[in-house]
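User: Could you check the structure of this?
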Amino acid sequence: MKRLIPYFSLYLTLLLTGCVANRDGKNPLVTATLNPAAPSNNQDANYITKVVQQVGSAVVRINSTRIVAVSPQDSYLGRFFGAQVPNREEVQRGIGSGFITSADGIILTNAHVVADADNVSVVLKDGRSLQGKVVGVDRVTDVAVVRIKGTGLPTVKFGNSDNLLPGQWAIAIGNPLGLDNTVTQGIISATQRSVADLGVPTERVDFIQTDAAINPGNSGGPLLNAQGEVIGMNTAIIQGAQGLGFAIPIKTAQRIANELIVKGRVDHPYVGIQMGELTPDLRSKINQSDTGLKVNQDTGVIILGVASNSPAARAGLRPGDIIDSINGVAIQDIRQVQQLVETTKVGDMMQITINRNGKKQAIAIRTVALPARDIS
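Assistant: Sure, the predicted structure tokens are below.
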């Protein structure tokens, strides 16, 4: 089911359901506490209970409502009476999870839980319901920050999502299907799951894969290690699959959250290309097409399309160009391109070496902020 990346908006609209931070980590609101040590006795079944007792009170339920207009054509009567039936408004309700990162009420959750919400309420484990204010939403990574008024609130501790290994314990806490304070346990199944791995569009995120049960309503809840430290934000399940859950690495969530807290938004660099990973089959299809393109290699990343009026178009990139390197880094797959662009600051120059019709050529591209139209 492999699909090509849409224009390098790379906002990869998540065809997943359920669940989808300043770089130097100096923002005290979401600064990580790193402790990668394993528990002294993983055979002790009580370690899960201890983690829940340690963290459970900092995991919250998030209820959101939004009012949407429903046109007459969407209703049964409207199909018969058309314009005679007036527009009406409908309240849509959503349920998700989140976790408190500061004692004064900063909460991290998924963007799709609170985006466009007219009202957000946060329910604590002790039953209190508090009004939530959306500080910022980043649809590109599906990270959002919500604030509630409070002091001395329970908080989570952060672990290190950079050194995770498949097979390590993973614990998810959240509110799946509206069932509050549900705990599931499994392992880290894989790390750095990319677009190519999943075979579907997704955000600019390399996911943590886990077999800990994650269901709709777990969105925004924490994925924890055996020490009770947050290593990810539960964000997605593949519809119809079993034992496949995904989480945003907490380092990524922290970086995005810090920017949302400071600026209220996150500016993602944008180039404007559609890419594909070359295979013998793709090479054959391109060479046999009526595009006029001829490809002479079976591996690498090929540009299949260039967005009009984009940095790539202005720099002279063309369909059929094969990306050899970016800023001196040899390119092997699409994931590398995504990472290198995402870690570039908006306005910076990127030095790209391409192979065009068998000849190498150096091209400089100045990135711009991802256009809003490419985030919807």
